[in-house]
Design brief:
Order of helices and strands: HHEEEEHHHE
Structural class: alpha+beta
Shape: globular
Helix content: 25-40%
Largest sheet: 5 strands, antiparallel
Strand content: 25-35%
Oligomer: single chain
Length: 143
């Protein structure tokens, strides 16, 4: 009995990430939102990692020779893209400037740094190609 409980706790712990709470449904909804908005015929949109903290998500994306990062926010209508950027949105300070609460910005930035530490150099180079920060929510400046 004790051994079964330990195994159960270990298995449950494997699903916990630095950006909890993240549910499979959040991941699927975020991926679906991005695919619907950015998929192009014959060019696969790669989305990994998908990191969620609170009402915000940060996603690394690549498509063809380009790539970047997308910041999304949960609203009444579901997940929506707030902005797209390259390296300019990786830090806690940049995420806070974009309107992410400090605790969520810290978790997202730390999780992104950890996730990208094991990525191939070629993929990281793609993610850096997106120049500047492009607001997708109709705002012209950071919050």
């Amino acid at each position: 009995m004790k051994r079964s409980l330990i195994v159960l706790l270990l298995v449950a712990g494997l699903g916990i990430t630095a950006c909890a709470p993240k549910t499979d449904s959040s991941d699927a909804l975020i991926r679906d939102t991005l695919h619907k908005q950015f998929d192009q015929a014959g060019v696969t949109l790669e989305l990994d990692p998908v990191l969620v903290s609170g009402d915000h998500a940060l996603v690394d994306w690549s498509q063809g020779t380009m790539g970047g990062r997308a910041l999304l926010q949960m609203s009444d209508g579901g997940w929506r893209v707030v902005l797209c950027a390259g390296d300019g949105i990786r830090s806690q300070a940049a995420l806070e400037q974009a309107g992410v609460p400090a605790a969520d910005a810290r978790r997202l930035s730390e999780a992104l740094t950890k996730a990208e530490a094991s990525m191939p150099k070629e993929r990281l180079q793609k993610l850096s190609r997106f120049g500047g920060i492009m607001r997708m929510d109709g705002q012209t400046s950071h919050k």
